[in-house]
Specification:
Blueprint (H helix, E strand, L loop, with lengths): L2 H23 L1 E2 L7 E2 L3 E4 L2 H7 L33 H19 L5 E4 L3 E5 L14 E4 L5 H12 L3 E6 L3 H14 L3 E5 L5 H15 L4 E4 L14 H29 L3 E6 L12 H21 L4 E8 L4 E2 L2 E2 L1 H14 L3 H10 L9 H12 L9 E4 L10
Parallel strand pairs: 6-7, 6-9, 7-8, 9-10, 10-11, 11-14
Antiparallel strand pairs: 1-2, 3-5, 4-5, 12-13
Helix pairs in contact: 1-3, 1-6, 1-7, 4-5, 4-11, 6-7, 7-8
Length: 398
């Protein structure tokens, strides 16, 4: 094995174990809706950190590897730990080690050292805020658009550490830079292609290495197509199926595994659409594949409730823009919709606003508010859908 292969293997092992450690270091709250206060768990994998993690005797050194300090307390050096063991076996041994440390020191460890691979440590924060999602890590797929921007801003305002994901490129880079202007180091951008299994797995591993784990996932990635069924090319239909269905499936599958490993519950919010209960002619491929995505969310709510993972949906009608970000969906399908109705861009937005009962312009922030209702656990709810459409009678039952 080359040095690079050895390094990559060590990182994968640390990414596997970080959510377990993060879950064990979370503090119970006694609140049945929000049972744990999580920590932000960072990793050190430099040569200095790996050397320090090699022996408990290194705690006698004058200094710990930066940015660690002795004020954080004695590190935990779990004994006899085979990192290639099954997850449940690792959890049991780590749980015993953390429990023993807590008994001896009357507190949980802030630094955990793993021989040959590195160090995990609790991030010390000067922020004394009591925001409801402080120290929670949220990941948003397909983030770099109007709805994604609204959702990301809302999550940041509630205190989240945010992972913005989208296809790699300037769009994601620029989007992440804009969010960092709002929240600084509480934002990272990670390229994820939701149709690529390896990309999804690697993306979640990257989050675990950065902040220890994930608490909230917003499944927002999706693409449209405007065409009558008789005219749809099979390749085009399969392109939608790949993103809207398989992308949702892969995201749900991998985050389910992650949440079970972490052991502190979690929240998934699937961005559905009003087209699920009320499909439109010429919008069959989108309506059908989003309905499949929605149904996967409902099934996940049934399967994951036993782990205190809640899965809910939000179903917006047309969102054209949020701030400077335009909807990728409407940039693609807007021209055909305008042509069909003889309207310009403003006229099309007025048409959609005028068709709902409240005559409301639906924004990315409205969608964000629905996401936050679930993410902040305002009610003990799973498997539910919040319409964000201003009231559309043909989209009932509501």
């Amino acid at each position: 094995m080359t040095d690079n292969e050895s390094k990559q293997n060590s990182l994968k092992q640390l990414a596997k174990i970080a959510p377990i450690v993060r879950g064990l270091l979370a503090e119970p709250t006694g609140n049945q809706d929000i049972p744990y206060d999580p920590v932000i768990l960072k990793s050190l994998t430099s040569k200095e950190a790996v050397d320090f993690a090699g022996s408990e005797k290194n705690t006698q050194a004058p200094e710990y590897p930066a940015p660690l300090t002795k004020e954080q307390g004695l590190p935990l050096f779990p004994e006899a730990l085979d990192l290639n063991s099954p997850a449940e076996e690792l959890r049991k041994k780590l749980s015993d080690a953390v429990s023993d440390y807590s008994t001896r020191h009357n507190s949980k460890p802030k630094i955990v050292c793993f021989r040959k691979i590195g160090i995990l440590y609790v991030d010390r924060q000067d922020d004394a805020s009591v925001l409801p999602l402080k120290n929670r890590v949220a990941l948003v797929t397909g983030a770099a658009g109007a709805i994604g921007y609204g959702i990301c801003c809302g999550l940041l305002e509630k205190g989240c550490h945010l992972v913005a994901t989208d296809l790699p490129g300037k769009k994601l880079d620029s989007f992440t830079a804009d969010l960092r202007q709002i929240a600084g180091d509480r934002v990272i951008g990670i390229p994820i292609d939701v149709t690529d299994e390896e990309s999804v797995v690697h993306g979640l591993e990257s989050v675990s290495l950065t902040w220890g784990g994930i608490d909230i996932v917003v499944v927002n990635a999706g693409i449209p197509l405007v065409s009558f069924l008789k005219d749809i090319d099979l390749d085009d239909f399969q392109r939608l199926e790949k993103v809207n269905v398989e992308g949702t499936f892969l995201t749900l599958r991998e985050i389910a595994r992650h949440f079970i490993l972490q052991g502190t519950g979690g929240d998934v919010i699937v961005v559905s659409t009003k087209n699920v209960p009320s499909p439109g002619a010429g919008f069959g491929a989108y309506s059908a594949t989003k309905a499949a995505s929605h149904q996967l969310g409902r099934i996940a709510s049934l399967e994951l409730a036993q782990y205190d993972v809640r899965v809910n949906m939000v179903a917006p009608d047309a969102v054209f823009s949020e701030g400077k970000y335009k909807s990728g969906l409407w940039e693609e399908i807007g021209p055909s919709r305008m042509k069909a109705r003889g309207l310009d861009e403003n006229g099309l937005q007025e048409y959609y606003q005028g068709r709902n009962l409240l005559k409301a312009k639906i924004t990315g922030r409205h969608v964000s508010n629905a996401v936050l209702f679930f993410a902040t656990r305002q009610t003990p709810t799973t498997g539910a859908t919040i319409p964000v459409d201003g009231g559309l009678p043909d989209a009932t039952p509501r």
